[in-house]
Amino acid sequence: MRPRVVCGIAAAVALFATACGSGAGGGQSPSVTLQAVPDGGYPVKVADCAGQETTIAKAPTKIVTSNASSLELLLRLGAGERVIGTGFPPGKGTLPAAVAEQGAKVPALGDKGIPKEKLLGSGADLYVDTFGAMPMMGGGATGPSEEEFAAAGIQHVYLLSTACAGTPKAAKAPRTDLAAIEDDVRRIGAVTGTAARAEELVAGMEKQLGEVRAALAAVPEGSRPSYFVFDFDAGTKQPVAVCGRQVANAVITQAGARNVFADCDADFKPGSWEDVVAKNPDWIQLAVRNRGSEEATRKAFDEAEAFLKGFPATQGLKAVQEGHFVRLGSEVTTIAGVRNADAVRQIAATIHPDLVKDATPGKGATPGKGATPGKDATPGKGATPTENGQ
Length: 390
Hints:
Blueprint: E1 6-11, E2 44-48, E3 53-56, E4 63-65, H1 68-76, E5 83-86, H2 97-104, H3 116-120, E6 126-129, H4 146-151, E7 155-158, H5 160-163, H6 179-191, H7 195-216, E8 226-231, E9 240-242, H8 247-254, E10 258-259, E11 268-270, H9 273-279, E12 283-287, H10 294-310, H11 318-322, E13 325-327, H12 331-334, H13 340-351
Parallel strand pairs: 4-5, 4-6, 6-7, 8-10, 8-12, 12-13
Antiparallel strand pairs: 1-2, 2-3, 9-11
Helix pairs in contact: 6-7, 7-13, 8-13
């Protein structure tokens, strides 16, 4: 049986689903509006993309997360003490300082994906899954079936904005705002009995996004720079196109740029260097996975930049010639999380330095040089979809 992808949520009569969006941004993917739910408002019903519902009758007490992104969300929601294990554990320096110490204590059940037997035998009553059956994002057909989850007493929920993007039932329109990500935060908040904290996190995201939107309001759509996410760790022989359905398209759009591959009808697609050259982007994001230390991650960014400067097909690109690189790992752009809003500001501060300033002191980007690890992007706070499931 195919893993189910969470798509809506209801708690008693308190939640209802309808098409909506949480920010100005144009055509967005269908999402859900969630009324405020009191903490501990059970039962909570979580519906998948096919409309099938799972009922969460009480607050989970033993939670396993698929990767560092879902782990971070649980930590930020205040449910970290209930997390008993994770896959794709966060590298050193990956988690925000406020939750890093607690996150470091969570046992790693797998260096990448969690082996099926270990997950089923973990003793968990809830598994928060970012990827589902998406091989490119760290999932695959080797995980437990829904029947196996049920037999082990584990309820299975997803961050749908990442896991659902590549499925046939996903919306075809490009994703241009963070509504679905915010709904993920609310959904997991309701499931874990931390709905009030979830609303606080969403409010913080909206504040940051609103400031960026206001700052960029006078920049015409046609004048916004074109932008290419170079997924260095996915390989250099054939680049990966980050398409319109992907979370990153919303991040790029909200940051005041135009994703050069927004028109491909998917979340990711294999591309070609000929395609990239034809697009000739104004800016290129150097997306590398965390290497476990600031020094090693900076070296990986350097290697990605050196490749583009030395590869005959790319060395003549406008962005390469002008040194227009954004050094920001792909996790905060391609995987759902609270820090998607941070990524919006960081990218905007790099490509529109006269209009947007990074909110964190000392993290401003140098125009023409791109964001630098430790300056306007924390080193390694990213993950490539193929090699790091953070």
